[in-house]
Structure to design on (539 residues):
């Protein structure tokens, strides 16, 4: 835990953030453009799905992010509740809208991919359904966080909810898979991971890295902003007390 | 020119591929921009309050000097 | 243990005194389920096929209706604060509240479900599975609901917040609850019937055990936060 506590100090965190932020931002832009270039120019069209397969390079990374950010929130919530780590609350709070954004993207691009492939904007496919439920979990988390006059209480309540939700994610995933095999969907396109061709795997992985870096950049800026807000609140209180 | 049109038509899937990318760009950009905007606003407000504080201190010093 | 029984009996007495609270959930359940034949037409086969889903979804909504008041009265009259200050085990207090809630909501719903099944022409073989599924599933609904009810104490938008928090967490119970009854109705051989329903019922039981473990911990943590 000592590594954590070293960065628990907000000033040290700010210093570190300010030095690494330009580098990560540069890396994000670079990987994003490299990924886009490969997605459009070096990767082939799929022999079954044609050019529509290019939607995969934003859809799949967005879906990865949906789960990754939720896990990060749950991890930050554990740190916030058990070790009362001062930055963990801020990290969870700053992550939620980003995760919700990516989850929305996974759903919307899924619909845009589903229309030409399945002939419908939405099918109750196991993966789509689980992501939809994950989106609801995000909405609940954000709503609970902002439902209290006292921000501290909102953060605490949202942390408990995030942990409960995280325990539930595998249960929900399992039950939805089960439900889906029982009700035999008409035609489900399978995108099995390892069998994918390297010429498609590379752009996918690079886009995945780019999305993760983007998350990191926005997260760091948001935490920085939250820290300044905390300072502002302290100043305002001092001003009120003086007068 | 022909190459461009074939590129944008995406094998007749253009109507699905381009909105996907545009939507992704829109969501990611708006996340980034709102975040930056909030940071700027907070930084500006902090700078203002801090300058106020130093003015207060100067006034205090002046008042002390006058009294003595 | 004594404190546990005290809370249960006090809540039951309160619920019996204000009879409208107990009857509201069941009444809502019966009224809403009887709307479906009007919306879908009176065709008996169709109604029999969708009966499990309608019964479970409506039961879920009925439980939802009663969740807001689960801890609110105790929160407002200060008895929760006393409970936290008394250093009694909050985990067992949450369990006691949940038990009282289930006795006044889940149990009446369970009793009313066969009646609805009858109105929907469900096969009589499936009745016993329906009751077992409800017996295993409704306690989970109360347990998970208690987490949301404690987390939203003192929140600005308690009313809409609880459904948003709770419904995603209810989905596994809904899936296996409906699945158990569907399995009974869809299969032809008697041996397969039981085997199919059994796996669903076991999952319902597993969900119950997991919620039994998590809900008191999360609920107690939320109560402590609410009183800070």
């Amino acid at each position: 835990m000592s590594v954590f506590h070293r960065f628990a100090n907000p000033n040290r965190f700010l210093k570190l953030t300010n030095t690494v932020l330009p580098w990560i931002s540069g890396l994000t832009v670079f990987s994003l453009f490299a990924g886009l270039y490969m997605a459009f120019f070096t990767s082939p069209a799929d022999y079954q799905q044609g050019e529509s397969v290019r939607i995969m390079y934003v859809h799949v990374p967005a879906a990865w992010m949906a789960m990754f950010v939720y896990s990060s929130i749950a991890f930050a919530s554990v740190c916030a509740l058990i070790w009362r780590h001062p930055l963990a609350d801020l990290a969870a709070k700053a992550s939620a809208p980003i995760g919700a954004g990516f989850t929305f993207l996974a759903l919307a691009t899924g619909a845009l991919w589903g229309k030409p492939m399945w002939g419908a904007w939405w099918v109750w496919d196991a993966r789509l359904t689980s992501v939809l439920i994950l989106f609801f979990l995000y909405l609940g988390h954000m709503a609970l966080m902002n439902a209290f006059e006292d921000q501290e209480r909102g953060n605490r309540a949202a942390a408990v909810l995030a942990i409960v939700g995280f325990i539930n994610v595998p249960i929900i995933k399992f039950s939805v898979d089960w439900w889906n095999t029982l009700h035999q969907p008409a035609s489900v396109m399978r995108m099995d991971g390892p069998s994918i061709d390297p010429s498609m795997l590379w752009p996918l992985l690079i886009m995945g890295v780019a999305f993760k870096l983007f998350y990191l950049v926005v997260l760091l800026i948001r935490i920085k902003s939250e820290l300044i807000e905390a300072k502002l609140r302290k100043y305002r209180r001092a001003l009120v007390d003086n007068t | 020119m022909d190459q461009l049109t074939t590129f944008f038509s995406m094998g007749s899937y253009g109507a699905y591929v381009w909105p996907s990318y545009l939507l992704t760009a829109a969501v990611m950009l708006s996340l980034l921009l709102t975040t930056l905007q909030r940071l700027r606003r907070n930084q500006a407000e902090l700078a203002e309050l801090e300058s106020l504080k130093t003015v207060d201190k100067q006034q205090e010093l002046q008042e002390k000097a006058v009294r003595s | 243990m004594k404190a546990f029984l005290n809370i249960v009996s006090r809540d039951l007495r309160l619920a019996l005194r204000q009879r409208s609270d107990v009857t509201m959930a069941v009444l809502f359940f019966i009224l809403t389920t009887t709307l479906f034949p009007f919306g879908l037409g009176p065709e008996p086969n169709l109604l029999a096929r969708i009966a499990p889903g309608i019964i479970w979804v409506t039961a879920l909504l009925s439980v939802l209706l009663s969740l807001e008041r689960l801890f609110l009265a105790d929160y407002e009259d200060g008895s929760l604060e006393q409970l936290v200050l008394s250093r009694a085990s909050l985990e067992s207090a949450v369990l006691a509240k949940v038990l009282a809630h289930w006795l006044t909501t889940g149990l009446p719903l369970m009793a009313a479900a066969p009646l609805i099944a009858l109105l929907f022409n469900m096969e009589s073989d499936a009745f016993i599975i329906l009751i077992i599924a409800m017996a295993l599933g409704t306690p989970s609904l109360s347990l998970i609901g208690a987490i949301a009810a404690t987390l939203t104490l003192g929140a600005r938008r308690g009313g809409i917040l609880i459904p948003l928090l709770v419904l995603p967490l209810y989905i596994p119970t809904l899936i296996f609850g409906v699945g158990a009854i569907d399995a009974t109705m869809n299969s032809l051989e008697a041996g397969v019937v039981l085997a199919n329903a059994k796996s669903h019922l076991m999952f319902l039981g597993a969900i119950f055990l997991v919620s039994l473990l998590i809900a008191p911990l999360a609920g107690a943590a939320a109560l402590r936060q609410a009183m800070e």
Q: What stands out?
A: Chain C is about 90% helix and 0% strand. The two ends of chain C are 26 Å apart (CA to CA). Chain C has one domain: 2-227. Chain C touches chain A through 30 residues (CB under 8 Å).
